[in-house]
Design a protein that fits this description.
This protein has two domains: about 50 residues; about 140 residues, Glutaredoxin. Helix content is about 45%, strand content about 15%. It contains six helices and seven strands, in the order H-E-E-E-H-H-E-H-E-H-E-E-H. The chain is elongated and about 95 Å long.
Length: about 210
């Protein structure tokens, strides 16, 4: 009888020890997993930040062509107000959804900021501007070095640059509520906004 009781106690002790070890291992694994996730997130954030133009960076002038094909240079020091670069392509679906916001920026530009369009392609550009009745200066054929320096790729992208050629703000994507509110506050404008934020993949392709 005593042997049976002893065996039972030893079994319970063994089970408790096993559970304790398993619990300890589980906690350790969870901590390690949390650290790994945090590390991956930090790496991803770094990749994302390195993939776009950084606020505070100083940028060179933009050299390109007008829609008529004439060479032109955008020098930020030509004016004493910030320059807003609106980067787009005529084929970009999200750019089309953002047209009302672009029109609002065009309407409000003047004493507070200068608005300049940058099209990443010449294809259908002249027809697009005429069809959508967009009256703003547009640069195209900007060259690979400019694309690399300005991290041009996703469209639409909105970049604000000071007269000293310093990057003040960068927004990638259509003007959903968060972006719209920030741009309204920064430029002192009213914008119609765009789309359901949940339906917009800001990291997707530009077309």
């Amino acid at each position: 009888m005593r042997d049976l009781v002893g065996k039972g106690r030893r079994a319970r002790i063994f089970n408790l020890a096993t559970v304790s070890v398993l619990l300890f291992v589980s906690v350790g694994l969870n901590i390690a997993l949390a650290r790994r996730v945090s590390s991956l997130k930090a790496s991803l954030d770094t990749v994302r930040s390195e993939g776009r133009l950084q606020v505070g960076a100083t940028v060179p002038v933009i050299r390109g062509h007008s829609i008529a094909g004439a060479q032109q240079t955008l020098d930020y020091g030509d004016v004493q107000i910030p320059t807003v670069l609106y980067v787009f392509t005529p084929q970009c679906g999200w750019c089309k959804k953002n047209l009302d916001n672009l029109r609002a920026l065009i309407y409000s530009s003047g004493s507070g900021y200068r608005l300049v369009g940058v099209s990443l392609t010449r294809q259908d550009l002249k027809e697009y501007l005429a069809k959508e009745r967009l009256s703003l200066p547009v640069y195209t054929d900007v060259g690979d070095s400019t694309r690399a320096t300005y991290r041009l790729g996703l469209t639409p992208t909105t970049i604000i640059i000071s007269p000293e050629a310093r990057v003040l703000k960068v927004w990638s994507g259509v003007y959903t509520d968060g972006i719209r509110q920030e741009i309204e506050a920064y430029l002192n404008v009213r914008l119609p906004g765009c789309c359901n934020p949940a339906a917009v993949d800001q990291s997707g392709p530009s077309s």
